[in-house]
Amino acid sequence: MLRTISGTFLSAVLLIIAYPQIEWWPLAWAAFVPLFLAIDGKCYKSAFGWAYLCGFIFFAGTLGWFVYVTYPGAFLLIAYLSLYFALFGAAFKWARPLPLLSRLFIVPSVWVVLEFCRAHLFTGFGWVLLGHSQYKNLFLIQIADLTGVYGVSFVVMLVNVLIFESFKICSLPCTVSGAGRAGEGGIIKAQILVGLILCLVLGYGAWRVVTFSHGPTVNVGVVQPNIPQALKWDERLQPWVAQKTLILTRGFNNIRPDLIVWPETSLPGVTSEVPELVGQIKAAARNMRAPILMGAITDEHNKYYNSAYLISIDGKFAGRYDKIHL
C-alpha cells in the first residue's frame, strides 16, 4: 500500500514540476513510471482509483489558480479532468496481457485519444496536455506542424512506457532465467525501435529549425504587467491595473514599435462597463502612433466572450476576434 501511495504522489509531483512555473520538462519523460509501478498488478477498480487520485493532484497543482475565478467551479473542473487519468489507468490495466510491442504503442495511443477527447468534449479543455510540457524542447516540438501537440504527447508517453517495461524486465528475479532472456530480447528490440523513432523525430526537428526561412521583420512591443489573479479582478483595483499596463506601454516611446501587444483579458473588466479605461487605451494608441492588440471581455446580450481587440493608430477599434475554443 505504501508503494502504491508513494508512486501515485510521486508521479503527480513530477508532472507538476515539469510544467510552469518550475518547468523541469525532462521529468515528464519518466513522470508516469511511478504510477505505472503503483497500479501494475492491481484490479481495474484500484487502477482506476489510484490513477484518478494522481490526476486530481496533478490538475490541482497546475490549475489551482482557478480558485481565483470560482472555488466550487475549480473543484468540479479538477474532479472532471481527473476522470481522464482514471480511464487511462484502467486502459493501462487492460493492456498488460498484450504482447510487449502492442502495449508499447497502444498505451500512448490511448493517452492521446483521451487528450483529444478532453480537448473537445463539452466544449473542450485542452490545457496542460502532456506535449505542452515540452514547449522549450525546440527540436522535439517541430513535429507539431504535422501532428499537433498530440504527436509530442505520444512520443513522451512512449518513452514513459518503455522505461517502465525496461525496469520490469530488469527487476525479474534471476531464477526466472528463461523468461528473463526472452523478455530481455523483446525489450532490446523495443528500445532500438523507440530509439529510431526518437532519432527520426529529433532529426526532423533539427532539419526544420536549420532550414527555417526568415521573412520580413516587424518591431513588436510586448507588455506584461504581471498582476496576480487575486488582484486583477478586484473591481476596486481596475484603475490601478489599467494604469500599470499603460505606464509600461509608454515605456516604448523611444522605440516606436510597429505593434504593441497586451496580454489576454488585459482590460480588467467588460469593455462596455469601463468606457473611461477604453478611452485611455485609445488615447495611448494615438499618442504612441502604434496599434495596440489587447484582450478584453465582451458582453453581447448577456453572452460573454473572451475577445481580442485591435486599436488603430487613430484610436478606433479596427477589429475584434472572439475566442471560439480553449
Question: What is the strand content?
Answer: 5-15%
- Please state the structural category: alpha/beta
The first-to-last residue Cα distance is 38 Å
Helix content: 55-70%
**Segments where pLDDT lies below 50 for 5+ residues?**
none
Gyration radius, in Å: 24 Å
* Spatial strand arrangement across the major sheet: 1-2-3-4-5
Summarize the main sheet.
5 strands, mixed
Total of DSSP H or I helical runs spanning 4+ residues = 11
Overall pLDDT = 91
What is the 3D shape? elongated
Question: How many strand units?
Answer: 5
Give the ordered list of helices and strands: HHHHHHHHEHHEHEEE
Describe this structure in words.
The chain is α/β, with parallel strands linked by helices. It has 11 helices and 5 strands, in the order ααααααααβααβαβββ. It has a 5-stranded mixed sheet with strand order 1-2-3-4-5. Helix 1 (2-18) packs antiparallel against helix 2, helix 5 runs antiparallel to helix 7 and helix 7 packs antiparallel against helix 8 (177-211). The mean pLDDT is 91.
Core attributes:
alpha/beta; 5 strands; 56% helix; 326 residues; single chain; five-stranded mixed β-sheet
Question: What's the structural blueprint in terms of helices and strands?
Answer:
Blueprint: H1 2-18, H2 33-39, H3 44-63, H4 71-95, H5 100-120, H6 144-147, H7 149-170, H8 177-211, E1 220-222, H9 229-232, H10 238-250, E2 259-261, H11 275-288, E3 292-300, E4 303-311, E5 317-322
Parallel strand pairs: 1-2, 2-3
Antiparallel strand pairs: 3-4, 4-5
Helix pairs in contact: 1-2, 1-3, 2-7, 3-4, 4-5, 5-7, 7-8, 10-11
